[in-house]
Amino acid sequence: MERLRWGVLGAAHIAVSKVIPAMQRGRFCAVSALASRDLARARETARALGIPRAYGSYEELLADPAIDAVYNPLPNHLHVPWSVRALEAGKHVLCEKPIALTVAEAEELREASRRTGKRVQEAFMVRTHPQWLAARELVRSGRLGPLRAVASFFSYFNEDPANVRNVAEWGGGALMDIGCYPVTVSRFLFEQEPRRVMGLVERDPRFGTDRLTSGLLDFGGGQATFTCSTQAVPYQRVQAVGTRGRVELEIPFNAPNDRPCRLLVDDGRDVFGGGVETVAVETCDQYTIQGDRFAQAILDDAPPPIPIEDAVDNMRVIAALFRSAASGSWEAP
Q1: Contact predicate 299/166, CB 8 Å
Q2: Domains in the chain, ordered, with CATH?
Q3: Ordered alpha helix ranges (H), the chain
Q4: How far apart (Å, rounded) are the C-alpha atoms in residues 91 and 150?
Q5: How far, in Å, CA of 29 to CA of 44, rounded?
Q6: Is-contact 76 167, C-beta < 8 A?
Q7: Which of 18, 91, 97, 118 is catalytic?
Q8: How much helix, strand and coil, in percent to the nearest 5, is found in the chain?
Q9: Residue 277: exposed, middle, or buried by beta-carbon count in 10 A (0-12, 13-18, 19+)?
Q10: pLDDT bracket for residue 183 (50, 70, 90)
């Protein structure tokens, strides 16, 4: 079976603990090399994960002709610079979210993809997870009635000043790190772009990052609301509410890979749960699916599951939320 040969930039925790092992279990992925600015660390990580080659610089990996695609899990401010360099080196790119720090950066990446003819995708693994495909199908089927609201909450607690999520100039903060998920899934379920958005931000006085952010997205016939925080009890939940029913996703973003996910579908017959049906979604690893679907698209010379234009549009909404928080007014993406 033909497999896409991957190189990984850096030894980020998400890459080492989740994405690389998941991709190694995929049907269409072969993780062939890993690079770090610390050669010893690259060799140690590659040896632990069974990766054949290790490099002491990102440039060396990009120069490797045996690499077809690059996974970029670097800190947010390095997403676009190194993704562009990977594209220019003739590699396809799967880049962690958020794909950029600004709309202009996202557009730069899109243009680099067009210029080089190489594909790039934002690594929103939720967009290809079966539980999210099932949720969208429930909306499309009409079982919930017309979609009126999507309500999301996503939080964790992290006050480590050395953590990249708490470094403002590197794109840290709640909205960029985890608020981007409620934004993308709201657009995913409504299947359109919001006409205007309203944002509210509370910043950490030490880091300058947003530690508590809420947003309201106006989709015309429906609305999406969310709250995200880097300094609150760990929790996540999403509900999509229509005129005749609702669907609740228990673990919408950090979906487990060792047990089924559950959708709670409620027909609204009472407020005590009498109309709730539990729909189990098969056990799977969303990072394996993400890697395989991107790899298969490349091998088949087909468009990636999530086009780069979607990443640009998601960045437009995020930027508008920040503008609204500063202006105190509605902003159009």
Answers
A1: no
A2: 4-123 (3.40.50.720), 126-287+315-327 (3.30.360.10)
A3: 13-14, 20-24, 39-49, 58-62, 79-88, 103-116, 130-141, 174, 180-190, 286-299, 308-327
A4: 37
A5: 21
A6: no
A7: 97
A8: 40, 25, 35
A9: exposed
A10: very high
Give phi and psi for 84, each to the nearest 5. Answer: -60, -45
Q: What is the mean pLDDT of residues 141-166?
A: 97
Alpha-carbon distances, residue 155 vs 13, 17, 167, 169, 230 (angstroms): 18, 20, 17, 21, 6
Residue pLDDT, tens place only, 292-306: 999 999 999 999 999
Answer whether residue 148 shows pLDDT above 90. Answer: yes
Q: Are 33 and 42 in contact (CB under 8 A)?
A: no
User: What is the rounded (10 degree) CA torsion for 37, 43, 44, 50?
Assistant: 130
- Could you tell me the pTM of the whole model? 0.96
Q: Is 118 a catalytic residue?
A: no
Residue 310 CB coordination number (10 Å): 19
